[in-house]
Amino acid sequence: MIENLYFKFYYDLMPNKYDKFNNDSIIADTSTISNLSFFAAYKTKKIRIGIEYNILKNGKKYNSPAENHNLYGLSAYFTYVINPKFEVFCRLDKLYSNTIENEDEENNENWNAEEDGIGLISGLQYTPIKNVKISINYRNWIYEDEDAKNNPSLFLNFCYKF
Question: What is the gyration radius of the CA atoms in the chain, in angstroms?
């Protein structure tokens, strides 16, 4: 076993049955949503590195079933501790969906193409006293759809831990 190496694994199934009154007039997707997540991290006094992979099958969201609608996500995390009061952090996310083949259309595309893309969070965190953190960070979502407008933002966050 390697010291300071961490792993987490998560799996969940959510069967969906909407027609509990046996009403034939209600049409609902009863696909079972499955969620799989794997996380690995390495931590030292100065560096924290992590990677995470997620798969959501048969759902547009965790509670919204949709047969053959799958989402995939990959995240990477990095933190460098400059000294006990300052640290630099970065997170990179890649979200993509599967292609639904449609016989009516010549150009099939990913069902969630408007939201597929890359997310970026990067910043500096300051801890002036125990349980208080202040962070200035840059965030942006870069859409795969070239016509979509990216939304870069600058944030100032405060955290007080009780």
Answer: 21
H helix or E strand, kind and range, residue 34: strand 33-43
- Domain chopping of the chain, boundaries: 5-122
SS3 137: strand
**pTM of structure:** 0.80
Residue 29 in this model has a pLDDT that exceeds 80:
no
The answer to whether 30 and 17 have CB atoms below 8 angstroms apart is yes
Please return the burial class of 83, using the count of CB atoms within 10 Å of its CB with bins 0-12, 13-18 and 19+.
Answer: exposed
CB count in 10 Å sphere of residue 65: 20
- DSSP letter at 85? T
How many whole angstroms separate alpha carbon 94 and alpha carbon 149?
A: 17
Q: Please give the share of the chain, as a percent, with pLDDT higher than 70.
A: 86
Contacts of 20 (CB under 8 A, 6+ apart): none
Tokens representing residue 20 in the block: 């509990």
